[in-house]
């Protein structure tokens, strides 16, 4: 196993490009580099510069690479399909220009699922027709990515219609491997009641990219019991620096060794930008943890 590590703008609370509470992209890139990371993700389209020369300069002056982009859209709404495919094209063009490899594909957090995050037994599911429409959109996304040489990786995410194990399994059955790979997020797995190591073993041939995220067990338990919506849970610090939560990274490390995973892992700690938390310090803590508890133990 060999891991290369990055961080992402979401660790600074960047979920939406136009949020007035966002720190500037210059601050975020400065702090990602200053926290010891060599690469980042694109974040929501329009947050970082989209012009090829401007983005290349923003990254190169900080010795950062670009490893992935994110497609965070309403995959379950067929009326959004044309706009989604166009956004995929725009994002893939940017990724290709910067030599990035992956597009992380996530259904957008939406009601009622945002209030049902982590509630696997009672959460609303899509009906068969709605599910089929979402799969059609995802196949379209995969086809566009193939045109640009970008690997699309589906990300099961709390508060969305692809969150729980039954939904992940169904998506993996319905989507051809050549059109959709998998990004396993350790924190979102635990949020949804999944064992990330078991998911990694089951889908080892489709796992192309990783997100390392940790989760506060106490906040998680309270959030699920109270039906706390996903974004409120973020504001309550449900996610924490790696090694301070309940994700079993010893088991994750051993699983990655067993499946011989070699590639990129992006450290993430979703946060509320209005909370003014010290994201750089948390990013440094997470990097130190992964280097000591995961990478060093392999070496």
UniProtKB/TrEMBL annotation:
The lineage of its organism: Bacteria, Pseudomonadati, Pseudomonadota, Gammaproteobacteria, Vibrionales. Keywords: Isomerase. It comes from the Bacteria. InterPro entries: IolE/XylAMocC-like, Xyl_isomerase-like_sf, Xyl_isomerase-like_TIM-brl. Residues 30-292 form the Xylose isomerase-like TIM barrel domain. This is Sugar phosphate isomerase/epimerase. GO terms for molecular function: isomerase activity.
């Amino acid at each position: 196993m060999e891991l290369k590590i990055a961080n992402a703008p979401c660790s600074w609370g960047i979920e939406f490009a136009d949020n007035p509470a966002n720190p500037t992209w210059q601050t975020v890139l400065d702090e990602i580099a200053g926290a010891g990371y060599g690469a980042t993700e694109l974040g929501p389209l329009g947050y970082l510069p989209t012009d090829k020369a401007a983005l290349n300069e923003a990254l190169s002056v900080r010795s950062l690479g670009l490893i992935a982009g994110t497609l965070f859209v309403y995959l379950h709404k067929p009326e959004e399909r044309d706009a989604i495919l166009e956004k995929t094209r725009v994002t893939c063009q940017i990724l290709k220009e910067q030599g990035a490899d992956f597009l992380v594909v996530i259904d957008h957090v939406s009601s009622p699922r945002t209030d049902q995050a982590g509630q696997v037994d009672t959460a609303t599911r899509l009906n068969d027709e709605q599910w089929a429409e979402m799969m059609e959109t995802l196949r379209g996304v995969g086809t566009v990515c193939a045109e640009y040489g970008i690997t699309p990786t589906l990300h099961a995410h709390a508060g969305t219609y692809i969150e729980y194990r039954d939904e992940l399994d169904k998506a993996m059955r319905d989507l051809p491997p050549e059109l959709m790979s998998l990004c396993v997020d350790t924190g979102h797995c635990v949020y949804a009641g999944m064992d990330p190591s078991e998911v990694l073993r089951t889908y080892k041939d489709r796992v192309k990219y990783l997100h390392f995220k940790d989760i506060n067990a106490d906040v998680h338990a309270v959030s699920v019991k109270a039906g706390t919506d996903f974004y409120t849970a973020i504001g309550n610090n449900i996610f924490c620096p790696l090694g301070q939560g309940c994700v079993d990274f010893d088991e994750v490390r051993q699983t990655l060794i067993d499946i011989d995973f070699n590639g990129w892992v992006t450290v993430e700690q979703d946060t509320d930008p209005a909370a003014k938390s010290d994201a750089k310090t948390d990013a440094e803590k997470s990097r130190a943890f992964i280097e000591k508890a995961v990478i060093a133990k392999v070496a």
